[in-house]
Prior knowledge:
Distance between the termini: 52 Å
Structural class: alpha+beta
Number of domains: 2
Amino acid sequence: xSGYGGKILSILGRQGHFCEARIERTETSSTRFKxxxxxxxYGTSEGMSVRVFRGGCWGFASGEVSELEGLLxxxxxxxxxxxxxxxxxxxxxxxxxxxxxxxxxxxxxxxxCSLCGELKDDMGGRRxxxxxxxxxxxxxxxxxxxxxxxxILQETLVLYGRFSAVGRDGGRAEEGGERFSxxxxxxxxxxxxxxxxxxxxxxxxxxxxxTVKGEFPVVMDPVLSGVFxxxxxxxASEGDAVIEGTSVLGERLGKKVGSELxxxxxxxxxxxxxxxxxxxxxGILGKKVMLLENGVVSGRMHSIETSAETNEEPNGHxxxxxxxxxxxxxxxxxxxxxxxxxxxxxxxxxxxxxxxMSGGSxxxxxxxxxxxxEEAFRLEGGxxxxxxxxxxxxxxxxxTLHEIEGVGKDFATSPGFCGKDGQSIRVSDGGPHVRLRxxxxx
Length: 442
């Protein structure tokens, strides 16, 4: 950490407007294997940003840590250019003094490189033609200060692994993938499982011959149901989308929009969640938000700006990719609440069992979406039977929420990175198995 937080607080406190400063220090080790080549990289970065709020407008500037006073002048100048109508949201407490160090430890660049070389050997297969591995180890140090006297120091260990295997059989190509994440430490057994699982998905997908199209009862696994929670409900529940009128859920707070079996939340404090954090990039404590409760729209995620605009409570969901970016409303760990059905009960109807996600898109305004699964199977006679080729699910958010007729007791999450307005941040999503009465697939 910087060691001169007192000086920063003193400078910020002398300003005549609300202002805040963020410092970020990042240390990254990464190893990648692709096309037969093993690469290793190591680097560090450091930077600072400041924001000034004046006359209903923000001014933002970023640069070197040593440039604090110059950055303040630049940000104030930008905030003063035009009058705005933004509101500065209420902060529940001021004068916060918080400090949290990272949990666990990483391996270091040399060990990562050696491990990557071993992992690639477990991704072989008769029809696997290309293998890709990325292992990333990052220590993120963040400092937050503002003119109200808040001082928050956080350090996070971020570990992420990505595995992909591409196979060919004749003129057909398929890909299998798997991901690893942790904020505490590497698990070598899990990493070797990920490598084998990516190769298995690739080989098995090449064996799927049958193509299916039409409307079927569908059971989604926790990965796919989590993607639905994130893409279809999470983005539509972001405060800025609500204010801008680009959310299909924007005017539906307190209204029933789906089956009473479905509840969805976003929780920055979720233990084991890849998107976990304590305080957001505005120095606000992250809180769990029920987005959908028993089919009723029950909450939205907010920055201090959007909470003021909607006259709702702030809940610590403003995040910035780095100190070069302004905080915007983002998700953290977005999940479907487990229900009461066993897996055996969910697969009683003939239909399709869909696992994983290999791509998709959603329009939060119209509610139209398309998700493509990684693996697909027929459900026949209460059993998971023949493998079919991966399919895409299409529909609208509101129609699909009413089609939910079973929610499993189980629960799992998967990691990823979410992009919005040019910024990418770590998140996770998940939930239980979920059955839909019917879905259009093809």
